[in-house]
Write a structure and sequence with these properties.
The protein is built from 31 helices and 19 strands. It is an alpha/beta fold. It folds into 4 domains: about 350 residues, Alpha-Beta Barrel (7-stranded beta/alpha barrel), CATH 3.20.110; about 150 residues, no CATH class; about 140 residues, no CATH class; about 140 residues, no CATH class. The strands form 5 sheets. Strands 7-11-10-14-8-9 form a 6-stranded mixed beta sheet, covered by helices on one side. The chain has a 5-stranded antiparallel beta sheet with strand order 15-16-17-18-19, with helices on both faces. It is globular. The two termini are about 30 Å apart.
Length: about 900
Amino acid sequence: MTSAAEMPASSGSTLTLHSDPKNTKETDPLRKANGVYVTVHGHFYQPPRENPYLDAIERQPSAAPFHDWNERIHWECYRPNAFARVLNDRGEVVKIVNNYEYFSFNIGPTLMSWLERYDVEVYQRILEADAKSSDRLHGHGNAIAQVYNHIIMPLANERDKYTQIRWGKEDFRSRFGRDPEGMWLAETGVDYATLEALVAEGIRFIILAPSQALRCRPVPTQDHPNPEWHEVGGSQIDPTRPYRCYLKPTLNTSSSPLSAIKEGNGDGNDSPLPYIDIFFYDGPISRDMGFSDVVYNSSHFAGRIGSAVRGDHRPTQLISVATDGETFGHHKKGTEKTLAYAFTKEFPQQGWTVTNFAHYLSLNSPGWEVELKSVTAWSCAHGVDRWQDDCGCGGEGSIWHQKWRRPLRDALNWLRDQLTGVYEEHGGQLFRDPWLARDEYIQVMRDRSATNVNRFLARHQTHKLTAAEQVDALRLLEMQRHALLMFTSCGWFFEEISRPEGTQILRYAGRALELAGEVAGVQLEKGFVKRLGLAPSNVDDFKHGGEIYRQLVLTAQLGFKQVAAHYAITSLFTNHKPAETHNLPRKDAADKQSQRYQKKVYCYAANELDYQLQRMGSLTLAVGNLKLVSEITWESEHLVFAVLHLGGWDFHCCIQQFTGRRDYSQLKEKLFGALKQASAAHTILAMTQLFGEEAFNLQNLFAEERHRIMRLLSEETLTRLGQLYTQAYRDNYGVLMAFHRDEIAVPQELQVAADIALGHRCLMTLRSLEQDIADPQKSWSHILELEAIATEAKHLRCRLNIPDGKQMLEQLIARSLWQLLHDANGSFNADIQLLERLIDVGDQLNIDISLQRSQELYFSCLQSQIASVCITSLGNEADNQCLQLLKLGKKLAVDVSVISNQLR
């Protein structure tokens, strides 16, 4: 962050958006349109990345060191904007701003679901920001809705348009507790049919790019019933005002989509026409936000905004800009700080009012009418061809073609229509109105509890459904959900069909095909793959979309056997705790024992009905009886598994249907009898005879658990290697010191040994500290050891590569700070000294620890607890506590000067 975007060191008072405290109702810009308003809209969105079978995002190596791209962008963008720092010229935190209180924003429902699951603190900050902005802006919150899973609306059929809007509205309502006033269209893709659907669903306004307008004029009145149209097709429309777009009864796609309408409609003399209001963001500034350095400095950013203010003495105007929300922090590091300072300082100093579109619309009803080009989007110069044709957009100078786009679109449209027939035929037997059931299925997607699902089914069923019919009903609805997910825009956005985005939408299509087959027995896959064969890939290994489907989609499909195999193999690395039954009545004990061990395997409930494990030498055999239930479709399977661990990386696992207790008992007896021979070959032969040839191994595990087990299996080897490196380091310590003393390049083998040995020692010490943190004496001992390691590493110029240790120390500091500030029974002097040393040792180890969580915790207590302690401490024994707390704030890089100055 540059100094121009920082606050003066002495500033620490609470900032407001309006510098004139004497505003009356007549001049208050929040109550009456007056002066310049600024709206910064962030479109926050991530494509759905969940495995269609697991309802979870699996590890994505390209996002390293994070688990996946959602997590990476979260830590770079979504969380920093919820806790955006305003810094002084010493780099200390003066203010922590929730940027979502000042942004106009939409957050895609799939991303919001992920945030709710992954970081509920940030999720709540977003909800609170909307509520606070609504209070500040007289009932108009900053958040707007989004079409559910980012499909290009002009390319969707009418039914899908309405479902996307209804799902987006209901998802928004369930989170923010109010109806959305506006809605973000994916890629701002729009046509008049989309506008009609939005109006029918009660959406008041949308946001578009200036290039999407065709012509505009003042709204006709009785005095001026026929104002002149102004052609603005080249992005010349004035973006500083809102526009009203009427849905007129006859549409014509010649030079104007409304050219068949006689002039004068909408003048108040005819029947009132339905309309939607439209804001056009400032194109040049929005482009600069994404592609120049203007957002790295709040003064420059304010200057760029100011350049768009019209000097024509109009009573009010709106400068609105829009870009991907991920620009702030992810694409452009640290720029969330620019926004925080601009929102709370720069813009108010200019006399501008920070607002959102809904609030501005409430103050300033459109005085101009607009007509749109027939079919447009913000990221394609060819209408919406980027999502259906080889138009060149997305190639970014690449020699690769996009001839695959049209065949992919055609294949998915064909599949959608086939699935529609399946849904109407079979859904009509189960649902009173299948399409109403689909529209309201969002209520189940938000809450999959049995109570809620039963309530939903009872509301829509044609008759009381049997258990099998309930499964089919949920399969059909899931089929439709995936039929919508397969149209997510990202699949066409880039230059190649085999990219992860294209593969993902094909996986959704594959899941929809599978569900259709399970319910109706239809075989649609052959026809679908044939059509994909017409989509040429730029990658020789794939040749076309059909081959991509075979290699990347079919191989990723999962069934109950794979889930059971996953459960079986991981059971060898899990501490099993049978259900307690000795204090229960006999019947309850029997019921409890029948489900002796319950566990979730992603979106499956695993009820372990029996489990037995035996070891013989290096061999371990586990046999179990398992019932799996999908929490999404309520499908279930009762399975038997046997898994043999031969040692190391070798596993042999077999699965079959449960056929009765007697068969199961005999199977166990034969397998454990074979194990007594202590022969791997003999045991595997017995498993093959009982289960058949199909077998699973470590490679068949879901990636997350496979990697965990690989780490567990590697621990012994890594420990042994650590000991060897440590011994090499100790034996050559004098030699290493001599190399460094004489400033001679250290042999790589010796330096690596030192790096690994000290890193291992540091990590072990941090683990001991984590375990003993409640014991002051042991904690101090571990801290002294860490300081010794830091000194040694510095002398030998070692790089301590211990990401787990870094995270551990950050959490220890935050936990210790929380205890210091909230535990009245603690020993203050000892606790604060320990905390300061923890922070110091983090610096000394040079492992790049982050104090952000601790800063947020300290800052949240600064004005309440800490300030009150200091104000009441003057002249009494608490004075020392106050000074220590302020010193701690300095160590955490928080500006405490306001309180310090008051004590002088």
